[in-house]
Amino acid sequence: MADRPPSVDTLARSLAATGLPHPICVDVARAAIDAGAPDSAMERAVAYRRTLLTPVVNATGVLLHTNLGRAPLGHHQDPQAMTVEFDLTTGERGSRQTAVGQLFARLCGAEAAIVVNNNAAAVLLVVAALAAGRDVPVSRGESVEIGGSFRVPEVMEQSGARLIDIGTTNRTRLADYQKAIARADVDATMVLKVHPSNYRVEGFVEETSISELATLDVPVVADIGSGLIDSGCPWLDGPPPAWLAGEPAAVQSLAAGAALVTFSGDKLLGGPQAGIIAGRADLVEACLQHPLARALRPGGLVLSALQDTALTYLRKDAAATIPFWKMVATPVAELQQRAERVVAAISDAHPSAVAAPMKSLPGAGSAPGVTMPSFGVLLDGDHVESLRNGVRPVIARSRDQRTSLDLRSVDPADDELLIDALVAVS
Ligand SMILES: *Cc1c(COP(=O)(O)O)cnc(C)c1O
Q1: Shortest-distance Cα residue to atom 12 of ligand 1
Q2: 57-71+325-424 — its CATH code?
Q3: What distance in angstroms lies between residue 365's CA and the mean position of ligand 1's atoms?
Q4: Residue 330, SS3?
């Protein structure tokens, strides 16, 4: 007589070692039995667990990896009540925008600042608050799509403002804006300048600078995207890295005459996912008063992490404290030493492994086409999939049957994990 299939409950309990909660184990066990393959239950449970958010070692060399949560960030918060919307002086209700807003205003040299969920939300809120039912001139060279779903014309449509195309794809001059704004059928209340972030037009190209746009009669809103605070990078020892040239910064954009800037919290800023709006107090207030502000507001966890990030910048401590800037500031010689250590530790398992110079990318659409020198480990064979299948997955890259692991995007504290993972896939 054939064995009877195990009961759902017995099978579910056999999956407990995966760490999945019992109701999920029951679902998985039932699915395996229904498929006539109870033996597949463990495999299914492991596969399910791998669909949950999982910490990984990022050895891709892309420092702000869009699929790996952009800027890596650790944030500890005790389960305590916090003054998210409470004014300690008056004992009355306060605004959740006060604490972090004032810090970002100070950092950017702005009159005021507020925080929303991401930069897409920031742009949406600004345009809705300043220009719903009115017109917004945008250069044809800046009517871009960023990261798959942020498309300037679509954001504009959702905000209720009408986009007025200005100039051409490769060249847009101040006179093009002036002519459009002067048209009888155009009712412009702001111009929007968008940093094209992840793409670049080369050759016969001309864009209108913020300082030129600031001579127009309407405020200039600059979506600078990446959230570089200051192009001088005063938080680094020494001059700003060459790869940053061309990235607009909040301080300089406002100094050049932008009435507002918007940027992401989790790109070059190195903080949590958020969108920051900084600039003229009356325009920031108009954003705050718009009904969308409530729908787009961040929670206390994000505000608290962003406050830490802002305080770190104000202490000029970013290179030592913010993981992204730590990765940027690591000298190549140090990466080379680490690579040589890893190679020595895995040489029995991988005699082909060598320490090799590599090129890291900032990522997240920042500074397209530029790289920073790095060092990593190169070995024979395509191990990308096996490395991904480990308990602590390692995300590597492969080309021409060789696997490369760039150490600039790996936390030095994870080198041992990396060694273990590499030995395990030999
Ligand atoms: C990244 C980016 C956005 C979208 O920002 P999110 O924080 O991802 O919403 C918008 N505009 C520009 C210029 C960007 O670079």
Answers
A1: 225
A2: 3.90.1150.180
A3: 9
A4: coil
Q: What is the pLDDT of residues 277-326, one digit of tens each?
A: 999 999 999 999 999 999 999 999 999 999 999 999 999 999 999 999 99
Partnered with residue 222 across adjacent β-strands are: 193, 261
pLDDT (tens digit per residue) in 126-183: 999 999 999 999 999 999 888 768 899 999 999 999 999 999 999 999 999 999 999 9
Residue with tokens 């910490």: 55
Q: Which of 223, 224, 260, 366 to mutate to test the pocket of ligand 1 (most atoms within 8 A of CB)?
A: 223
Q: Residue 284 C-alpha to ligand 1 middle, in angstroms?
A: 19
Answer whether 129's CB lies under 8 Å from 122's CB: no
- Residue 409: CB within 6 Å of ligand 1? no
Distances (CA, A) of 336 to 59, 346, 358, 373: 14, 15, 10, 11
Does the CB atom of residue 248 touch ligand 1 within 6 A? no
As a whole number of angstroms, the distance between CA 27 and CA 40 comes to 13
Helix residue ranges, H only, 160-291: 174-182, 210-213, 250-255, 281-289
> pLDDT averaged over the chain?
95
Evaluate: CB of 247 within 6 angstroms of ligand 1: no
Ligand 1 atom with the shortest distance to the CA of 196:
13
Structure tokens, 34: 């229904």
pLDDT for 201 equals 79
pLDDT digit string (tens) for 255-282?
Answer: 999 999 999 999 999 999 999 999 999 9
The CATH classification of domain 98-321, taken from the options 3.40.1550.10, 3.40.50.261, 3.40.640.10, 1.10.1660.10: 3.40.640.10
Contact 198, 147 (CB under 8 A): yes
